[in-house]
Amino acid sequence: MQPVRGTHDILPDEYRRFAHVIDTARDVARLYGYREMATPIFEFTELFARGIGETTDVVSKEMYTFKDRGDESLTLRPEYTAGICRAFVSNGELTQQLPLKIFAAGPMFRYERPQKGRQRQFHQIDLEVLGAPEPGADIEVISVAADILDRLDILGRCTLKLNSLGDPESRTVYRKVLVDYYSAHAATLSEESRDRLQRNPLRILDSKDEGDKAINANAPSFADHLNQVSRDFFKSVQNGLAAAGVPFEVDPGLVRGLDYYTHTAFEFVTTHLGAQGTVLGGGRYDGLVAELGGPPTAGIGWAGGIERLMMLCNEPKVLPRPVAIAPLGPAAEIKALGIARSLRKHGIAVEQEYRGNMKRRMQRANKLNARAAIIIGDDELARGVAQLKDLDSGEQREIALDQLADALKG
Questions:
Q1: Which residues span the domain enclosing 391?
Q2: Which residues contact 145 (CB under 8 A, 6 or more apart)?
Q3: pLDDT tens for residues 325-344?
């Protein structure tokens, strides 16, 4: 039997890289004071319709939505931000902890064509800050991302793209200018872009259609329609990133289509993943919490695909080589259980074989790449000792059982 299309098993060797990405991200986030939380894997469908936007491809085409036995419409989590904002609204104690700085990691689900680095069940690391309207929050979340990529040895192969989406006043002005421009080219827009023209014109700027790209080349620039407040905010973000030593490029074509996105939008992109160039991306969404029924609360965050990061990251540290216990005889088998547990309490990885003669047990130890073998027979058991064999040098010596941990640490 095969796994469902668009899913795959993360086998032990691959899981080492998977865990390495999460552990690295978690460690860096903690250095900045972020706390970890988790939200349910499924939520009411309305959350994502409002929190992602009904005009987006995710909501209209890609969500795994189903009715439960109570006839409620539920959806498997396609992203983290909406759920974290919902948790903020649902749990009153979080509103007393502003700014709320959250790290999360887990599986997401989107029904789309599986390809390299993109599955229908995939995994993300996620960072969110709620209750911090200042540009310093933008600088911090981008700096956390840069530090995670740096520690994974990815940053040098990425470019940080940065843009401003302005405040609501700027967006209103720009939206009108954009609609006027695209209306004059409506006959040559793709069908999808014509559909977006009145509902979500900013999404046309992100179109992959070649005809749309040609029209977009001469589209009005958002930068030309930012008011002074928005220009000052964006300048502060740029100055802060420069001061923090995080290089970036301003990309006027980088957009977020929903009305509650404001000010900073950013992506770390690479040419090392083929067509799937975005490694990690995010932006400021000051209107989302209010959209979900909560108090007006500033927000900014990002998400990164773990599978894509795994394809780019450095090799995780090699796990400590274990010690193998090779007991001979029923009495030694029983004693070995206590020895193994005692050594593990000292932080020593121990493997114990449960069958076979000494030759087979030593072959197993070599297959496990064990660094040493502890050999116990009836004679050793009677004298309270074990034979400790270095499997690299072949040297073997007798060690008292209560000194094994010290000998192995040494």
A1: 323-409
A2: 127, 268, 280, 282, 302, 304
A3: 888 888 888 898 898 999 99
